[in-house]
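$ ./design --mode recover --in tokens.txt
reading tokens...
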């Protein structure tokens, strides 16, 4: 009977220990990212994914690392994987929108910010991202129009 009582106590303690370890790794990943030590952040996130392959925080963290390294497509893959497990999908849509915005693909950025807004119409970050993307897109069009007009006059 005593053995059974010990296992009843040990199992919850092991779960608590695993959660503490996970929290420590998440804090380390964030700390490394904040210091712009992207390889340290990536290592911490990969350690998290070894035990929890669907950990949304680690997937988003890896997406941010890849985006900081200029690897938009890899970043988006991590954000999309996080999206598939997330309860707060608006965050993941906004992260994808941000990746497209940074790489000047404003139409896709707007599309993803709109997806975030559709899920949460109080999500200020998505509105700000969409509005900035729309502005940049309009500026791109205006620049293109100016170039075309200048070409016509110079011919």
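writing sequence...
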């Amino acid at each position: 009977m005593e053995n059974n009582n010990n296992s009843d106590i040990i199992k919850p303690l092991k779960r608590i220990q695993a959660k503490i370890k996970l929290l420590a790794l998440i804090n380390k990943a964030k700390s490394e990212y904040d210091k712009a030590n992207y390889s340290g952040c990536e290592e911490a996130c990969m350690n998290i994914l070894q035990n929890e392959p669907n950990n949304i925080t680690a997937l988003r963290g890896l997406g941010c690392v890849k985006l900081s390294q200029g690897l938009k497509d890899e970043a988006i893959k991590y954000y999309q994987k996080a999206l598939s497990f997330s309860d707060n999908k608006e965050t993941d849509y906004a992260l994808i929108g941000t990746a497209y915005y940074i790489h000047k693909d404003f139409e896709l950025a707007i599309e993803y910010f709109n997806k975030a807004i559709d899920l949460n119409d109080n999500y200020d970050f998505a509105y700000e991202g969409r509005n900035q993307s729309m502005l940049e897109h309009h500026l791109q069009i205006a620049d293109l129009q100016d170039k075309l007009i200048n070409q016509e006059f110079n011919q």
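exit 0
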